[in-house]
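Example 3.
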Amino acid sequence: MGRAPCCDKATVKKGPWSPEEDAKLKSYIEQNGTGGNWIALPQKIGLKRCGKSCRLRWLNYLRPNIKHGGFSEEEDRIILSLYISIGSRWSIIAAQLPGRTDNDIKNYWNTRLKKKLFGKQSRKDQRQHQFMRQQAAAANDGMMKQEAATARDAAGSSSMAVASYNWHHQAMAAVPLQPIPGSIMEGHRPGDEADESIQKLLYKLGGAGPFTALSVPQCVPPMYEGSPGLMPPPSSCPAVDAGTSLDEGGVQGSGMLPALELDQGFHFNQVKLDGLESFFGMGTDQSMSWSEVSPLICPNNTVAASSSQGMQQYCLVVDEPGNLGMK
DNA sequence: AAGACATCCAACCGCGTATGC
DNA sequence: GGCATACGCGGTTGGATGTCT
């Protein structure tokens, strides 16, 4: 027996919302609220819509102060940081970005940010980059040669996908890792500090990610969850400030998140690593051996050594091909 | 100019969880 | 405790639009 449908699909309208429907829904909710019952709401206001559809429409578009498009570089970084640490928990990520909806962020991640990070250029980026190259080439022909080189440098190197990584170049300075062209491993900002509120948030979400490990290495990183064979020595996670809610622990107004620590996140979050084959050039067509990949994941423990003993321990555990599901 | 292809994003779907009885 | 119902979430789809060949 299947799940009962939430509404009668035969009589319910689907597809894009008309301005009239939007107006009805918006004015009703503004005046009366949702009444705590989305299922009954469409009937009350005479909409032939499913309650779930009304809820979605309100939350994603009609609600006040919703922002669409135009993600800033800081928003990019926050999304990336949280994604690496907690995964695709869009509602939590959205809670850290005022005016953004989980659906919006999810779409943005799937259609743009992921490509931006993992090296697949959008055609827009490709065109932009091609244009820049043409400009530079033209400039090369003659007295402009010197200026062209400078401009090219300013816009990024001539390697693939660089044009789309401006935010990252701005955000990162070099660390002793072997750079992967077009990847987020290209550089880091050693001077950055993790935002404390995000640390708290990540604690609250289960000690996830790099920030946790840096501050409290005895806390169990999420990669160990449900993996008895990988469990570190038993220890208790320090109590998270019980008063730290997602709301008050937000990152509004916070600074940028540290790329160095983002990369450290790859040491701890196997779930994320599993999804990053293409990022590391480990697709089915060109699998890399562990010896090739290991220096990228745990680059000679350089990061760990500079961070904490706990990091080193985790890296040693991770530093086995089987632990990352690799050959 | 037109067809093919890529991109974007609004909306839907189904599952897990919370809540009330 | 068990059940029914509603909510919230993340994954996915499909159509509109833009761009390329």
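Confidence is low (pLDDT under 50) at residues 136-194, 207-327 of chain A. The radius of gyration of chain A is 24 Å.
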